[in-house]
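S.,

As promised, the magnesium ion run. Input:
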Amino acid sequence: MIQKAGRLFSRTSIVWFALLLITWLLSTYSRDMSKALEAKWITRFPAGWRLSLKNDISAAMKWLVEEADFGLFTFREATRGLAWLIEQPYNLVLSVLSSGFMEGQGSGAVQILPPLSWIAVTAIVIAAGHFAKDWKLALLMGLAFLYLAVFGQWDSAMVTLASIIIAVPFGVAGGLLLGIAAYRWNWFDQALKPILDLMQTIPVFAYLVPILFLFGFGPVSALVATIIYAMPPMVRITTLALRAVPDEIGDFGVMSGCTQRQLMWKVLVPTAKPDLMVGVNQVIMLSLNMVIIASMIGAGGLGFDVLASLRRLDIGAGLEAGIAIVVLAVALDRLSQAFAQPRQSGEERRRSESFLKRYPRTLFVLVLSIACLAAGYFFAFIQSYPEALQVTTGTFWDELVKSININYFDDLEAVKSFMLSTFMLPVKRFLGGIPWAWGWFLIAAAGWYFGGWRLSLLCALLAFFVIANGLWAKAMVTVYLCGVSVVIATIIGIPIGLFSALNERADRIVGVIIDTLQTLPSFVYLIPVVMLFRVGDFSAMIAVVLYALAPAIRYAAHGIKTVDPQLIEAGIVSGCTKRQLLWRIRAPLALPEIMLGINQTIMLALSMLVITALVGTRDLGQEVYIALTKADIGRGIVAGLAIAAIAIIADRMIAASAKSMRKRYGLA
Amino acid sequence: MEKSVKLSCRHVWKLFGHGAKEFLAKSGDVPSLQELQNADLIGAVRDANIEVLEGEIFVIMGLSGSGKSTLVRCLSRLVEPTAGELLFEGVDLRKMSERELIEIRRHKLGMVFQHFALLPHLTVLDNVAFPLDVQGLDKASCEAKARQVIDLVGLSGRELNYPRELSGGQQQRVGIARSLAVEPELWFLDEPFSALDPLIRREMQDEFLRLQSMLHKTIVFITHDFDEAIRLADRIAIMKDGEIIQIATPEELVMNPATDYVGEFTKHIPRAKVLTVGSVMSKEIIEGTETVSVSARIEEIADKVESAGKPMSVVDADGKPVGSIRPSTIIDVLVGRKVIS
Ligand SMILES: Nc1ncnc2c1ncn2[C@@H]1O[C@H](COP(=O)(O)OP(=O)(O)OP(=O)(O)O)[C@@H](O)[C@H]1O
Ligand SMILES: [Mg+2]
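Predicted complex:
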């Protein structure tokens, strides 16, 4: 029996080794071969066989916008209506926070009412912090907004805040309704699931183009993109949260004679509220994550500042705006988390008490806002924070970068070229050389090995999609960049995860760092990296690693921590040393969990790749980015789908192998 | 006077699994457990027949997984029975429209749950007022009624607390108050005390009996605890593998268990707690000034008879002698010997 297993193992490893060898040979010599045989199809997918999906999609979009008519209204009117619906509240909030209320049109407009003064807004967030939790949170909120004022980010921050304030309710309400529908109707759930999967793997850039096409350049487009991007997790969380409501509570609702609607809105949704708030928090964080990307299609504010300075390579200004986004993100994150906590018992809010006693904060904030409004007419510094007192750190950062670059240029350069020449470029060459037909076969074979013929078929179809659209070469660059980054993230992340799982102090510190890393909008990673290493694959790799490190650490730590303590004790009793405990018991048992972490790392890396296209990588991300700048809908969507295809292949293969591993350990 | 039947179910089936309805229709009469298993179906309730009388406490008792909850959920129409007939006050529950069912639930049914099922976002007061609020009653009368039932279960003063701020026993009091707020005619309790500590459980049982002595509801009470069943029940239905094996008063169960399975349950029950004088007395009528009631439990009169040291006259509710009881019989019962009357 054992012998047989042993032989089987060695046979598969021989097969794998042979495959690798063939791949290497093909990768190295196929170019020469295709030249010698004059068979170009070996390295390039024949142009005649390509699908014309790109053009079809573009044509379909064009038809939609220009001709589609649903009888009562045209498609154009529908999108205009939707835009109008979003625009109204947005303009209102923007007026309140940033632009003030205007009378008249264009340059002839006069301001009839100024926006809320910076003092009033800060007071409001302080009050919100106090209401949601305690004075500590109130202080944090106050400091955050004060920071925005003092560092001269106020105006941009308010524009960004306005778009968040609009995007979040739309995202939450939309997600909630879709989630409820999925909860109620199984067929809807089944139909929605693959769409959500796709939405979460397809890079945002891919749907920026069609949105741009439908809604035009401007804040509405940006809001639509943000809402679409931030909604999927809310849908999922809603469905999960409703399913997690104990059956008894639903039964109770029915037994009290609730109608369907009462059951949903008076029983299930309120009971699921703590879980739903996690979704709201997600929507807020994802909306903030979109701030910079959305500025590409017309959102102003902090995102625009970052993007503009990134384009100018004005590191100082970019970093300042970037940090302002982080500050805003941290403040809103904490605030929304505090709102998710259950309230204290309601003794204090007697119905009989006066308005003042019941709503002291609301009243205070109202009075203060009006007072500021009045005083603002006489004293400008009350209306807006005086410029003379603003602090800028831009020059400091510029100087810092300059001095680092002067003093450490050679060292940084050495690290960079070492990594590039010994690791990254060989991998790139190897992957890039694989002929498409062989690559296709390999993917299908791997799918079959990990998950049987179903997975094999799925992988083959997805890979065919990429190949048939002529994107094989670019896809391989994507795989290379993503692969290299994931390997490095794993090499760094897993040991940190292991260490923090075994050491409580380290665990706490690492926890804080990861949390911070995850609240940062992805663009922010680019700034310092570009500062130090300029554009290119290496910078892209570092940015991706920073962004995607968190799950590798987190899952490794979690996997180690959740190993059954009895097994550890069994190990101790049989005389394992600490090292043996780790390598013989903890690590193997945590492996399935670690695999999931790697899976997440890959997903994050892929989503970051599109952003790194900004610093000049030549992969699918760049393809999407070019499509965006050229407003080429078909090209953008196809490239986006190709990235999603890679993500799905990786995800399914890893999930399948983690599953079989779990089964082998009997953990399932 | 015969009590009227409040709720009855006839040949009720609940099978879980694919094609349950077709299977049942096809198999005609009563399929066995084995046949169900072969068809990949779970027979959660099999051919249940019960009649719950007005004003009685009807206990359904069985081990975990025996189908008690499923049966009650069928009775309350929380799940659709696979087959069978349900009559509430003579009306077929299964033929009712959605709207009628909602009306019945709003005004005539109440239910208490094992894990309380309190709404976490509402205070005690709002929780209790919830069923009234759902009916669309105005706020003031909701609140007044809610305060009244909260007072009834002894929780006044805690109205503004949230459920999580209460102990388990208190939470279940809220659950009970809430189910009573609409003044239901039929009251379902699904293992209401199973999640509580033994001491609190006893206390809650007393509380429950106190409430029932005031309210006289028709009650369907579920438990897996035979002691609890004996303590509370007027009649007990014993379930096993989805089947009702026996329906009887506690006393009959102890005296004449229908199967060995039931006998196994009753074996450990102290007889003195269950048996009445009537079931062990001798028919011989004797004279005596000191008497015991025919319906008294042995436990209650043991001291009296023993200290008398001689047979005592047994009288019925009108004071007419119907038999006699000897101290030795009492001792037989107390030590669990077979009683030959
Ligand atoms: N929704 C369902 N789907 C499939 N099987 C079910 C379902 N609900 C209950 N069952 C099965 O029906 C049988 C009876 O379950 P039920 O919950 O009625 O038992 P119970 O007597 O209430 O047990 P407990 O004391 O644990 O509450 C069990 O075997 C259970 O697994
Ligand atoms: Mg049950």
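The CA atoms of residues 416 and 538 of chain A lie 7 Å apart. Residues B 16, 42, 44, 62, 64-70, 224 surround adenosine-5'-triphosphate (ligand 1) (CB under 6 Å).

- D.
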